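Q: Is it fine to ask for two folds in a single conversation?
A: Yes, each is treated on its own. Send the first.
Q: Here.
A: Result:
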Amino acid sequence: QTIYYELAPVKLVGIINGVDEIADLKNLNVLPVPATDFLQVALEFDNTKDVRIQLFNNLGQEVVNEVHNNVLNGVFDIEVANLQSGMYQLRILADGEIATRSVVVQK
């Protein structure tokens, strides 16, 4: 016997702006919102860090993965022109710690 379940649609009632769990992170700015061609990520740390910048679509698929070494203060342009419109999750990894932001790409 096969049992089928019907899933009800989920209504999004809120979005977490971001989580900062990187101890040495002094500043994280992400502009513009919404982004069309490029997303600018500005980072400022107390000490230099090796940083991984990742962007995930709403299915959890990684669509951007960049590594930047010895970052103290940096501004990075992430190309999003080839991405579909929608909500994305930006993840910054440094020394095993994570900071996240929700971003919107709009065409």
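Q: Second one now.
A: Result:
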Amino acid sequence: NVKVEFFNSIGVKTSQLTSKNGKIDDLTQDMWALDSVVAINDSAKVKLETEELMWRKKDEKIVSEKFVRITTDTEIIEGYGLVSDQSIQNYVIKNVTYQTSTSDANK
């Protein structure tokens, strides 16, 4: 199993990622998380779930072309393709297939 913690520029943990497998490109230092990937930002209460994603070192972005699900206190969004900052606070799902507010989901 893989566990990665992400920190901001002053050393405060911003998010963590777990997966069953992972790999790192020795040249670029890009990291892939594979199989049952879950990334969580505890302070913003954002949870990202997918089967595969890459953390791109050069711009510290999380990217995926696979199906993704993001759950927050206020909404659930599902779709294909993701670009996010590593703290999972600023993200875009390229092809949204489902979206609802969590108040609707809890009814």
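Q: Anything structural to flag on that second result?
A: Two points. The chain has a mean pLDDT of 93. Helices lie at 102-105.
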